[in-house]
Amino acid sequence: MSTKHRISLHLTGRTARELGDAAAQCEQAGVESIWASELYTNPYIPLAAAAGATERITLGTGIALAFVRSPLTIALAALDMDALCSGRFVLGLGTGVKHLNERWHGVRDFGPPVRHMREVVGFLRVFLAKAHTGESMSFDGQFVRAEIRGYRRPYPPVRERIPIHLAANREHMLRLAGELADGVLGHVFISPKTVAEHVLPNVAIGLARAGRSRSEITIGAGITCAIDPDRATARRHAAGPLAFYATVRTYEPLFARDGFAAECARIRAAGEAGERETLVELVTDEMIDCYCAAGTPDEVRAAVSRWDGLLDVKGISPPRHFCPPDAHATYRERILELFA
Fold this sequence. Notes:
single chain, alpha/beta, eight-stranded parallel beta barrel, globular
């Protein structure tokens, strides 16, 4: 697969067989990586199922929440996953939404996202490199503190440096990613304009701070893709993720940057009023055209090409929110047929 067509997909499935089959199908088609998310599943478990069914494809958490687990738990999961897939794992971390961290996970002792994430990554680098050596390890941060003595993992890691990618959308997290991460995980909706004018310049600032080159980091982001001979069906399903994320106040600046502040406010108001069935109808054609690739194969191919030269890896994945689960496999098959 050429650099122009380096793609990733989101991994879904309910059983080990479904997950393994989906992962193997992606690998056979030449997909570079598959990612599992935190919202509806624990991301490590689907990837563990995929590990046994594949040999080459990269497996990544996209994302695992960094602040609702102890850093040591994250490190051990990363080491286990990298062993399961023989060195094909990427640890994708994100901060999560503050009020969900607090209300859903009951975690309140976290700090400002960028400063806290810097410490989490710093600890992970130390532990992943030394867990098998028996050396004492200490980390004395403001939010991450650890004193580890007498610990030695009984077998060496597959790799002492597991790639860490950061979910980053705002300027300071993008700069942090450029400074110390191996990759950036952009959101599942992000316009080419935002990548060019916001993501890449801020990553470049972080790279410059650390004296790193652009080749040392991978930039990826999501493109919701729905391919169907019936354009209306494809576009309605593609609108689902936009409707879902527009209800979350945290993502308002992303929509506003592309001129959709008013549309986002209407969708959020409808969501707060409990009008769930109307949310997708409030997503405009302009929003779909800005963020998604939906319609016939030719239309989708042309839409995806708008990110050429901007993203190193395009996360071309079927819609999940407000889309029937049984449609996901069909959309995945059509994506693989078009881009394999």
